[in-house]
Amino acid sequence: MTHHANDIKEKFSELEGREVSVAGRAMQMRRMGGITFIDVQDRSGRIQALIRTNDLDQKSLLVLDNTSIGDFLGVRGVVMRSKRGEISVGAREMTMLSKTLRTLPNKWQGLTDTETRYRNRHLDLMMNQEVLRTFEIRAKFLKHVRDTLDLRGAIEVETPILQDVYGGAKAKPFTTTYHTLDDKVMYLRISDELYLKRLIIGGVERVYEVSKDFRNEDADSTHNPEFTQVEYYEAYSDYEEFMKMMEGMMSSFVLKTFGATKIEYQGETIDFAPPFARMYWVDELEKLIGVDVSSLTDDEAAKINLSEGLGLKHPDRYHVADSLFDKYLKQRTLQPTFVLDFPAYMCPLTKIKRGNPLRAERFELYAGRMEIANSYSELTDPIYQRKMFDEQEIERKKGDEEAPPFDEEFLDAIEYGMPPTAGIGISIDRPTMLFTNQVSIKEVILFPPMKSPPGEASTK
Known about the structure:
- By secondary structure, this protein is α+β, with helices and mostly antiparallel strands.
- It contains 14 helices and 20 strands.
- The strands form five sheets. Strands 6-10-11-20-19-18-15-14 form an eight-stranded mixed sheet, with helices on both faces. A five-stranded mixed barrel has the order 1-2-3-5-4. Strands 7-9-8 form a three-stranded antiparallel sheet, with no helix packed on it.
- The model has no long low-confidence stretch (mean pLDDT 95).
């Protein structure tokens, strides 16, 4: 193969009359007298092979006679236009590269049922080439994040996926057993945070990981139990510095990829030109409903859960404050917005805000009304960190399955001293949803988890 389909179309003026070879899947075939037209599809798109039987040798004629829709073909020929003006490859030689044994989905209706598409991504990619564009953009964004962090002098590392103490976020873990360790109970990580911080303590200074994390929770349009994020930690920095970094990272990617800082998302325009808006959400919420959630008690939270109709299973102050934000303020985050300065009790790993002990130096970056990054000025005081872990342990004993366990090994590490540090988790899935105009996170995950098909029992 010398060229992809789109290469020939884009460079037709210089390739016309020259010999090329293409390879791909036969997607459509039409016969008109002594001429056969076959649309050959590769990763870049489709090109028409114009085949006159008089131009082929016996071997190629045999290939033509045995070609079916779905077969992989190699076609060598001359770049030309058909009588109707379509850019084509005038075939001189054909090779059967691989034979299909199954019939492709209907060529006119394509493959539209979402359940079938997700279960059969190979067919989805085959019939809906825009799906491939989605995952190309996803790959480009991940590379852009890596490039940004590499330019800051960061080191990419790998930390354990199986952990005996999970932590770094508030979430319910997946559980397994480690047979070679005497059937020890282990957990799939919910975050990389505590391991990466140990590297900061050890002197790495700038470190990140591209990670699959796992949270054993319900799935919806913007949440998947298995998800991809990049976690990055930088010594001698804080969350203000990371706001600048995110403005540059996001705006430069959109500009480089789409030629402007604006994108269209579900009929609305999102502009990634910096500076991004800032929302001090505790203050905004107090203006709207008269509640200062930074000083909320659990008893007050339980009453608000009833009066606001939040319907929470665990109506403590953490969950009530989080739900009030979703109810009243999340809708205001279409444009890129830094949601700033969370109640301190919601941030057990975060430094207290300078000048206000009830709040923490934390931001979440929203766009398209979705959280796409979460950042702290990291808590480095081992004595206060132990206190926050103790409070989390109390919540666990009350029945909060999302509260992380006490991590003595991390406390041992931080007692050796940790420099001032900023940390951030950057979603890969949700920004890809924005960039590709998707409303479901399953559209940007190649093989999303699915329930068992009707009539097929799941494995217990």
